[in-house]
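Task: complex structure prediction.
Instruction: return structure tokens for all chains below.
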Amino acid sequence: MLVTVGTTCFDELVRAVDTEAFHEKALALGFERLVVQRGRGSHRPRQLGLKTESFDLKPSLDEELKSASLVISHAGAGSIIEALRERRRLLVVVNPLLMNNHQLELAEAMQKRGHCAMAADASEVVARLQEAVQMDLTAYPAANLKPWHDLLEDACGVVPVSRAPG
Amino acid sequence: MLAVVLVCAWLTLAARVLWWMLERISWDRTENRRRWAGTRLPLRSLVVLGSGGHTMEMLSLLKDLDQDKYRCDFILGDTDSTSLKKVQATRPDLAENLERFHSIPRSREVGQSWTSTLFSTMKALASCLGLIWKLRPQVLIVNGPGTCIPVVAAALFFELVAFRSLSLVFVESVCRVKSLSMTGKLTYLVSDSFVVHWPELAERYPKAQYLGVLL
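Output:
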């Protein structure tokens, strides 16, 4: 299992996975390892059952993402999309302390479409864990940049355009 | 006599501004204006990289972008140390030529007071005016970081006074599902194309276009 807070400081989330209740639940669901990417926060998780390791930042989380069967992530767009691209099971945890919280919008939209589970704040993580592991997932569609390139050409008018705009 | 000259000058100016506004401002999707049809390619394109998430999104959008059609220059905020590294890590082909990367002063750092923001915004705008004059961009692609506001303002200024046409393409951030960002609202009326990542937004704003999953 991978927990990531990106480049932000989100100690509430790191603390939430550093509890006996969380480790118990995770062990019961069959997890063995816990990797925590702490970001700018200061709290360091302890060994409470799961084999736990943590670090602050890495240039790329590719390896950790590929080996994780569940990702618990802060609600930053970068982290969410990276995890969904890797087709990981994902629990998005919103940080309600962030100013005018529009992180919530993205997390809700992704959850509504069945791409991931969501916790409205760090205290809900334990309660949402089972749902995140067992929910029916709708795969996140692959990016298709063709319409974007067409739009650019249309906006600039570099080539004759036959299709109607839109 | 002087009065007549002054009145004529004012009328010319007013006519130019009015003409520009009629061409530039739109509430709806506009017909393709074919600005660059027949122009020699590549088009001089200018891309504003913000910070963090904005840079990540912009780099995804630049994937597979035909450099023979759009030759990109990049603008960075001068306190942004990570964006260039990110480009170098993910798109070494774009980062080959460091002369294509230009930094401008940030108009506002987090927590800066409003009076000093006024001065730093002026400084940012002045530096953008110089840069845009030099680069003469034909296409401007922005995706919403605060840094793009003075860049857009400078580019539109030269379109108004120096008759330099511009294709302005705005892409809203993927985290905007139901409402536009501040930069999105400011750019909405003056953009040529306005792209959003969620159908909810396209329904609400007639000019916004949802193009499916781009990221």
